[in-house]
Amino acid sequence: MTIPDLLYRVMLTIYRNYWKFPKHTQLNSVNDACNKVIKPDLLNLPIKPENLQCIALQKGKRVSPNLTCHWDPGEHAPDSNTSYILYAQYSYKKLANNLTVDLGSFPIYMETKVWVEVKNELGSVNSTELLAHAECFVKPNPPSNVMLIPEANFSMSLIVNWTHSFYLKLKYNIRYCQAGSSVWNEVPQSATESYIESFRLQFLQPYTDYVVQMRCINQKGIGYWSDWSPNATARTPEASEMFINVLYVLYDMRANDLCFYFMSQDPVKSNGKILGYNITVEENGVSAERHVVHSKEHQLHIKGEKMFIRMTAHNSAGVSPVASLVVPRSSQEQVRWSVRDGQLWVDWLPPSGSKWLLRVFEYVLEWVSVPEGKRDCRKSWPKKKCQLIQSPLRGPSVEATETQKTVFHLKWEEIPVTSQRGFLTNYTIFYKTGDNEQCKRNWLSPTKCYFTACAYTYLIKTMIKNHFWPHIPNPSHSTIANWSPDCPTRLPDLSIMEVGMFDGKSLCEEDKTVLPLKKDKYFSEEHSSGIGGSSCMSSPRQSVSDNDEGDSCQTTASTMQYSSVVASGYKGQTPSLQAPVFARSESTQPLLESEEHPEHLLEGSRHWTSGQGIEQQQMQEGKSSYNSLNFCPVAKKKYTPTLTEDPPGLTPCYMPQQSGH
Amino acid sequence: MNGHARNMLWQAHRTQPTAMVLLTLILLAMNEFGNGTAQCIEKSCSKNLHKGIKLSKFVKRATAELIKTYQAAQGNFAEQFCTMSMDSMPSSTLWGSSPAERLQSAYIRLTELLPHVTMVLQQQSDLNPYLGSLLSDLARLVIHGRHLALRLSCILQKLQPNVALPEPAVGPTALLPPQNIFQQKVYGCAVLTRVQKLTLLTARELKSLRGQCTDKT
């Protein structure tokens, strides 16, 4: 046989075995094979199964004889003519079946060889043989009758019980979690490797529901883990160590007593179902009262300065430790507040005294929204300051009332509490004449004030002025009165009392006589500012119009008097039987007393003389000295009570004499 | 089967396919084993020894449970059945001066007893085809017993490669005399008791051979 013949035969064999040929094909040469061959369907050759894996499930107390295997069939799906045969041999005998091999009786402790043959019309191929001891294919059932058992007096422990249900020795795996939680805690497998039927879970939470699951595997660790068992649930017993965490203390500002209000924790964290609370209150060192409460909330009214509240809870397991609360009443020394940078700061001191020397855990600062009635609080430890409040949102709307020539009243309403954003300390009033701000005054939380623009300062200036030169009435303050003989009205003697921040007591008695005008009617200490002071710089004008109220000013010799004109005949009129009294205008301009009442003038001069000073001498010398005084024109525009407009008379209305002073 | 009483009452209603399938498998297993075509897949002496110990203990436990099941299925006076002895079956004693010889005797005893277990299966199936778990347990015992026998033969081949294993006797149950029902009940418990004892002795012998294997695999 030549080599080409041998090659031909080999090729022919190959072709016949793997390639399709029409029936009864006569192949005489290689060329015939090449020409007559039907193109082989190489893509449909069976693909060797890979990754063969088998499993046998537990059935009853034994292993099921059914051995189920699966494998990777390859990249492309087989056609309909492809079949798979699973072989399992634990001796040499082939036991043919399909995907599941019934071994009759599971060959425990016997070596088992498994492979898959894939066959179609083009050929067959076997998978890699899977050789293992039969128990390597075993998957047991989950442990049966798993129970979770609580024990009395063991609040942090539960016992897990289960039953062996397999003829193979197994080891177990336990996991547990709190009911409702998705986080499992797993018991180390080393703790459950032996062939046991119970295990104790420890370091659990008292009075808590737990869920446990178990699984098992061959004690040698070979084969498959079982599925997790169904949930077993139980609750740990109650513990006597309960936790009372929440204590709310409400200070009822309206009633001015302490309202102690408490609310208990959730039972889950209280280590048991709390059956009741015992509350003992010590007021000012004396045990006052004891309360037994069976509800979760309670309220007590306490009026002591210092209170020591003790509280215990009890459940079926016992009594909790004592929880204590120290409540010192806030006093000016202990709790202080201040405003800084538009915020309210609260400072306090820790409780003092031996009895109160307890370890303070935290402070609770509470405040209330007055209009809304809402209470809020903040815990602060270890800080002793707390800022709560901000600057007010807006100022009040102001209304001027009781407007007078140089005096007006301002009235305003307190802004809403929601706009206050804190506690108002004072009001500041700004006013000006024209474009110049002349004055501002601080007032402590009144809703009105009398505004005289620095009466005290004016008084000082008035004193100086009156000492040196007499007061010249302002003609702008004149009004036309009756000029008729028929009106024998005598102008009453008027005297205007000066009104100011002082009542004249600060002056010596001699000085009091200098007072040309005094009007105690407007003098009111109630309008005094307790905080702040007047920053007025100008001197007010005196008011002379207050006589309309019927007050009679004192017409003592210390006051200036107005003249009364003695009536004489008048052309065209028939003189009355009585000598008419002609009144000049109601002017603030006093007549010279030398014209009318020499004695008065003399007294006035004496008065002036007593006042000392050059001014008085000038008065005695004659009226020429008066004529040298200049009048300050008073603004004739009507005064309107606004803060922006200067009231009349605020500007100095005299000018110092050029001579003689 | 020859010479044993049958429960004629149940014979008309016999529909025990499971038991018959198991019996067929047992017969096939016996034929395979008898043909000597069984092969030892595990080549390691120590591993064979280890698995032999496991299997012998397993069969012992299974037999102990089977005895309880058997007694429960026999009705009244069942406990007395297992206290009676019978001479129509092989004993469970071992012979030989060396562990290998004793192991060989264990192999022979086992192969002699397993047909009797099959007989018990058939008798019980005739007495009560609806016994269910007893019949299947008996069938499994036969299969596992065969497995143990194969394991012992593999071990002996490793320990004594030049010593031919004796062939088991053909049809040992053919010499059994006819038995009434009572005798069958006693016979069945006696067979199971001897199998249990034999597997216990086998496990001990195998444990004593742990140092005998020279391979380390």
UniProtKB/TrEMBL annotation, chain A:
Question: One cellular component GO annotation, for this chain's record?
Answer: plasma membrane
Where is the segment annotated Disordered?
525-555, 639-661
Q: Which topology term describes how it sits in the membrane?
A: Single-pass type I membrane protein
Chief location bin: membrane
Claim: Signal is one of the keywords in the record: yes
Q: Which SMART domains match?
A: FN3 (SM00060)
Q: Which UniProt keywords apply?
A: Glycoprotein, Membrane, Receptor, Repeat, Signal, Transmembrane, Transmembrane helix
Q: Give the subcellular location.
A: Membrane
Q: Quick check: keyword Cell inner membrane in the entry?
A: no
Residue ranges annotated for the Fibronectin type-III domain, each copy included: 142-239
Name the protein family.
Belongs to the type I cytokine receptor family. Type 2 subfamily.
Q: What is the protein's name according to its record?
A: Interleukin 6 cytokine family signal transduce
| Organism placement in taxonomy | Eukaryota, Metazoa, Chordata, Craniata, Vertebrata
Q: Which gene encodes it?
A: LOC113576766
